[in-house]
Amino acid sequence: MPVFERFLSIWVALAILAGLGLGQIAPGLVGFLAGLEYGSVNFVVAVLIWFMVYPMMVGVDFSSLARIHERPKGLIITLAVNWLIKPFTMAALGVLFFEWVFAPFIEPGTAGQYIAGMILLGAAPCTAMVFVWSHLTRGDPNYTLVQVSLNDVIMVFAFAPIVALLLGVTDITVPWETLVLSVVLYVVIPLTAGVITRLWLTRGAASPAQGEARVAAFTGRIKPLSVLGLLATVVLLFGFQGEVILDRPLVIAMIALPLLIQSYGMFAVAYWAARAWRVPHNVAAPCALIGTSNFFELAVAVAIGLFGLNSIAALVTVVGVLVEVPVMLSLVWFANRTTHWFPAEESAIRTSRPREQS
Questions:
Q1: For 221-270, how does the pLDDT look when each residue is reduced to its tens digit (9 = 90+)?
Q2: Which residue of 1, 21, 105, 116 is 20 to 30 Å from 224, comparing CA positions?
Q3: Beta strands in 100-157 (DSSP E)
Q4: What is the dihedral of CA 277, 72, 130, 53, to 10 degrees?
Q5: pTM of the model
Q6: Using an 8 Å Cβ cutoff, are 27 and 246 in contact?
Q7: CA 255 → CA 16, 167, 178, distances in Å?
Q8: Per-residue pLDDT tens for 268-294?
Q9: How far apart are CA 268 and CA 46, in angstroms?
C-alpha cells in the first residue's frame, strides 16, 4: 500500500483539525459553501464524492453483473443487516442510552428526539461513501454496485414504513428530492462517467486481459484523486459543523457513544457472518462496510423536515456524519489486515465468464 494511504488515518485527523480551524477562521466562506445545496444535498460535497467514487466506477464491468446472482451470500448478508437488524438495534441503543444511561445529563423531555435521530440514521443505508470504503479494501466493484443498487431500491419502499413504525408516527414525509437527487449525483453520474471511460480504455484491446490491464493502470493513476477527495470532504464536513462541535462537546460525545457501538457492532455481525459463510474477502469486506455506514444526507433531511433545523434529532444525524469517517477508516484498516480469514478472492473478470480450463 502506498505511504500516503498507509497513513490515511493521520491525514484524516489533520483534515478534521483543518476543518474545525477553517470554520473558526473563515466562517463566511464555510457558510457560502454550505449554502450551495438543494434538498439538503451539498453540491460541493457531491463533486468531491465524484472524485472519490469515479475510480471505483471505472472498474465496474457490466458483463459480469449478469452472473452476480451466482454469488448470493454477500447480498443476503447485506440486506439482512441493513433492513432486518440495523434499524431496530439503533432504536434499542437510543432507548438504552437516552432514556436510561444519559437521562440525568440531558434536558427533560428531549430523549425522544435523540432516539428519533438515531432511528433515522439506522434506517438509511449508505449510497455513496461505501464505494470509497470498498475501493480501499480492494472490493469487487461489480458486486458493490449491485449491493448499493438493491439497497437504494428497497429504501424507496421501506425507509418511511420502518421509520414510522419505530417512531410511532404515520405522517412522515420522505424528502424525495433528497433521495432521488442523491442517487443521481452519487451513483448515476459517476457510474456513467466510469462506463464511458472503461469503454474508451478497452476499445481496440487485443484481448480482454489487455483491456483489464489498461483499466487497472488507469485506475492506479487516478486513485490519489479518491483519497484527496475524501480528505477535502472531511475538511468541509467538519468546517460546516465546527461551531456545533466546539460549543456542545459533551452532547456530541454522548451522541457519538451509541453510534460507535452500533457501527462496530453491525460490522462485527456482517463480517462474522461472511467469514462463517466463507464469502471471499473482496465481497465480504464491502458487504460488512455497507451494513455499517449510513445515508446521512437522507437522515439529515428527514430530521430537519420532521423536527426542525435546530432540533436535537437533526444534531444527532449530523454527529452521525462526523463519526462515520473515522470509524469507517478504522474498519477499512481492520478488514485489510484480516484478508487471511477468508477464502481466495474471486475476481470480477472470472465472474464475467466461465472459468477457463488449465
A1: 887 787 788 788 888 878 887 777 788 889 989 999 999 999 999 999 99
A2: 21
A3: none
A4: 130
A5: 0.78
A6: no
A7: 18, 18, 24
A8: 999 999 999 999 999 999 999 988 988
A9: 30
